[in-house]
Amino acid sequence: MPPRSTRETKSDTSLSEEWIQHILRRAVVAAILCDPKVIEALLQIPDAALGRMFKNHLCAAMGIAMAYGIDLPALREEEENLRKRVKRASKSTPEDEPLSGPNKTNAERYPIVLQGKVLRTHDFCNAAGITEKTLDKYVASSRMFRVYFGPEAYIPAFFLTPMIFRDDFRKVIRRLGKIDSWTMFDFFMTPAEALDGDTPLQRLSVEDVKSVVKEAATFAQQYVQLFP
């Protein structure tokens, strides 16, 4: 049986050190099973660089999991800090990205942040191998979009998946129009009847762009009618 993190006290809301060690040991075993000679090569990599590589692959794995609709267990790191932000979430948002429609408060969004389904700009750029300037260009051209938790910007992890072309994302995002970014996030993540119960991400991952673009147009029209 793997060790369990304790939740005896209110302050114990993050992954325990014991559990983290267990996860890292499993990662090491997986590396050895993949290639027994890999340890020697990994030991030559500086500590900081190795840690960054591991974190980048975690971010990329989350993006792939989201594209396939895999429900990974929520990470509990930084949960206490996020809880403290909840009260401020509905009071402070960037002027150029106001929350609108059904998302006048995004306090309920913090579990999504916690699960790594959206990533801080710095982490996303490192995982994607791009600069923040390049990210700005992708956002400006509708190849990506930002969401906000309180005043802080995050990028959906599904933009890291290699199975979906950024130009395909652009076609869908432009068809969604001016709806707020959290609603846009929900669109990509939610199964649609018109897509036979698949999410738009799942359809995009198999290059069924036409169906998703059509569903995006319908979704945008319905949204405008509900929130004129």
Please summarize what this structure is:
By secondary structure, the protein is mainly alpha-helical.
Mind explaining what this structure looks like?
- With 228 residues, this protein is mainly alpha-helical.
- It has a domain at 79-226.
- It is 54% helix and 5% strand.
- It has a three-stranded antiparallel β-sheet.
- A hairpin with a 2-residue loop joins strand 2 (147-149) and strand 3 (152-156).
- The longest helix is centred in the N-terminal third of the chain and has 21 residues, at 47-67.
- The chain is elongated.
Secondary-structure element sequence?
Answer: HHHHHEHHEEHHHH
Specify the number of helices. 11
Proportion in helices: 40-55%
End-to-end C-alpha gap: 54 Å
* Percent of sequence in beta strands: under 5%
Overall shape: elongated
Topology:
Blueprint (H helix, E strand, L loop, with lengths): L16 H18 L3 H6 L3 H21 L11 H11 L20 H5 L3 E3 H8 L3 H9 L6 E3 L2 E5 L9 H11 L4 H9 L10 H6 L3 H18 L2
Antiparallel strand pairs: 1-3, 2-3
Helix pairs in contact: 3-6, 8-11
Attribute tags:
228 residues, mainly alpha, three-stranded antiparallel β-sheet, 3 strands
